[in-house]
Amino acid sequence: MSSQGEKAGVYPFTKGIYEEMYRSRKWTMRQYAGFSSAKDSNARYRYLLGQGTTGLSVAFDLPTQIGYDSDDPIAEGEIGKVGVPIDTLADMEVLFHGIPLDKVSTSMTINSTAIILLAMYQVVAEKQGVSSQQLRGTIQNDVLKEYIARGTYIFPPQASLRLITDVFSYCDEHIPNWNTISISGYHIREAGSTAAQELAFTFANGIAYVEAAIAAGLDVDKFGARLSFFWNAHNDLMEEVAKFRASRRIWAKIMKERFGATNPKAMMCRFHTQTGGSTLTAQQIDNNVVRVTIQALAAVLGGTQSLHTNSRDEALALPTEASARLALRTQQVIGYESGITNYVDPLAGSEVIETLTDGLEAEVFKYLNKVDELGGAVKAIELGYFQNEIGKSAYQYQQDIERGERIVVGQNKFSEEEEIQPEILKLAAKAAQGQLEDLQSVKATRDNNAVQKSLTDLKSAAQQSDTNLYPYILFAVREYASVGEISNTLRSVFGEYQG
Fold first, then answer.
1. CA-CA-CA-CA torsion for 472, 477, 479, 480, nearest 10 degrees?
2. Do 166 and 362 meet the contact criterion of CB atoms below 8 Å apart?
């Protein structure tokens, strides 16, 4: 099925979700960052905004992602290491200090505790005098892929789906411009999937979320318009462009033909792209600049709505300020100097691109039919289907590298005996201790009776299957209840998933 004759901005959106695409507005240049402490991360955000970033993207540390406070013994050694630690609303206030939340779009890569972090963001905005109606951004909020590829889950799947649909419902009424989920293929690809598997398994999860939302009584034409996706960009330029084009057509068909959506916005596959972290090498790190440029070019040629470009040193450590700036400049050169933003779907009509697009679409629907036969995404996760398929692809990919059938420049070919060791970012050793002291101070000065009441009310609400938990979590957040306290309250009702 060639896209010849189709137009951008109309079903099935193969050529783009907007008629003019980048002619009228460039993609959001959204650089992902977060480390050490809320204060340090705030400084990096303000620096990036000053350098021309048009959207923020928050990385959280591992304890925050899995619902533990920094003073929990399980958090020792992980505080602030892979992202910013957020224990209470006080940390969130520091994180966004001096950043007007009515002026920026913020993406938060958070899943199991997404409902808590969004509530914190909302309260920070209120304290700035910004209404929730003005907030723009995205929470990842995609827990199903955690069971498949990433592992930062807390609760069993059905409880997780409840929290996700509670966010859908609350935002529909109170935070209408917020993207309530970013259904992620990125981590599926990082785990070793093929391009087709990245699309297929992500869309299988997307189908499960839509089904859960419909079962909760939500209108597909309303909540469907706030769904978004998150794709990886790898090195095969033509395949990646075709993948992005195919993703729009596939999701449009799913929403229209499977779920009966009539609102064109509910059929649009709007997506953020991040260049492939797993493609970066610790050897000859300057080569990573070239890889990231190719991947970013694929994302732009494929019509992404926002983009993060990885830094050259990320195979070694969190990026330095200079590396992060160069990564941002890569986007800016493509956006302002390459000329490709003057064209809508510039590779449309290419025999290679059209054939690859059609082939990926057919392969994806073949996988989706298999998932349906297994009983849907949740059942496929429980059976280990996704995990096994990804494992086989990852093994084959690594075997190809080790046999020299797949060349990785500077790693298995064109290597050097001695390399100059680059300067890498070193986190402040005292940052974790400072985080613990700040948390102790909050717990000592807040109204602990009010905190306890908010948690008791949340527990009672969680025991009622038809109660939206967002307002209860919002109340607890306002009282400076911590991420760990709220998560433990929900654990006491839902239990923990043992994968």
1. 150
2. no
45: its two tokens: 């955000």
- DSSP β-bridge partners for residue 32: 57
CA–centroid distance for 378 within its chain: 20
Which sign does the torsion angle of CA 220, 226, 232, 236 carry? positive
**DSSP conformation letters of 458-470:** HHHHHTSTTS--H
φ, ψ for residue 213 (rounded to 5)? -65, -40
The CATH number corresponding to 21-402 among 3.20.20.240, 3.10.129.10, 2.40.50.100, 3.90.1300.10 equals: 3.20.20.240
Question: Domain map of the chain by residue range?
Answer: 21-402, 446-494
d(C-alpha 477, C-alpha 463), whole Å: 19
DSSP 79-118: TTSSSB---SHHHHHHHTTT--TTT-EEEEE--TTHHHHH
Note whether 497 and 157 are within 8 A (CB).
yes
Residues 253-278: b if buried by 16+ CB within 10 A, e if exposed: bbbbeebebeebebbbbbbbbbbbee
Give the length of the chain: 499
Taking the C-alpha atoms of residue 368 and residue 471, their distance in angstroms, rounded to an integer, is: 35
- How crowded is the C-beta side of 464, counted as CA atoms within 13 Å? 10
- Taking alpha carbons only, the member of 343, 345, 284, 348 closest to residue 316 is 284
| Range 245-259 average pLDDT | 98
Task: Return mean pLDDT, the chain.
Answer: 96
The model's pLDDT over 193-234, given as tens digits with 9 standing for 90+, comes to: 999 999 999 999 999 999 999 999 999 999 999 999 999 999
pTM for the whole structure: 0.95
Q: Please state, for a pLDDT cut of 90, what percent of the chain lies above it.
A: 94
Q: What does the pLDDT look like over 31-89, one tens digit per residue?
A: 888 988 999 999 999 999 999 999 999 999 999 999 999 999 999 999 999 999 999 99
Sign, CA dihedral 459-462-464-470, equals positive
Q: What is the spatial distance between Cα 22 and Cα 25, in angstroms, rounded to a whole number?
A: 5
What tokens appear for 103 in the block?
């002026």
Q: How large is the angle between the packed helices 351-374 and 385-402, nearest 10 degrees?
A: 140
Give 427's pLDDT tier (boundaries 50, 70, 90): confident
Share of the chain above pLDDT 70, in %: 100
Which residue type is seen at 10? Answer: V
Instruction: Give the list of residues 6+ apart from residue 131 with CB closer than 8 angstroms, or none.
Output: 125
Q: How far is it, in rounded angstroms, from Cα 176 to Cα 349? A: 37
